[in-house]
């Protein structure tokens, strides 16, 4: 069983939950929660430069292909992240808690054609993502503090999000914007993405407003490269990745943007108006 670190930062109940789930098989990246199997994917992150991206793409184009869903080679992602009264998502990430989760609402290119409520769970370098569709008017209700409709949703994720909003005061924290260039292999079992111009939106939580001002959160010329795969990563792809000397990182775009903008919220940022 894996050793759980940072016990002082979590309660006894959370610690026991971690111990139970520490029996997850690292070989296949799967876990069991409440009697259901959740199939985790591996996620590796690198902080690289623009020049490194260009070199990698020259090598990748012979083995991978651009995601067919990406018109013009990429798309813009905007995510509104939520956190509870205790800022658990942020604090657990900073404390190095092994198992954690985040809620967000995600759109693409400022459009309301595809809106998703997502919950992303992490177990070390493994990830598991759930999603449920939302309508624009439902997002507006959530931002207005009207959560009742979630309780009657046919999607369990929405009903669980309702409980979080009501019992744990889950509220909007920050908007994360970036431009993604996605590459795929083997019909999506291997996915490499370059997230460029990572920035935090300020001035409100209206994710459909393209005029929101933004603040860059990375050094100029830096971007986040993510490698996601199920089970094993082909050796030919491993050979493409940045060498050991590269900046393999646990960077969180949410944490970067939250830290960039939390001063705007004042002390009682969680309080309702």
Automatic annotation (TrEMBL):
Pfam (any one): VTC
Highest taxon in the source lineage: Bacteria
Limits of the VTC domain: 41-259
Gene Ontology biological process terms, A to Z: polyphosphate biosynthetic process
Gene3D superfamilies, sorted: VTC, catalytic tunnel domain
Name of the protein: VTC domain-containing protein
Protein's organism: Dorea formicigenerans
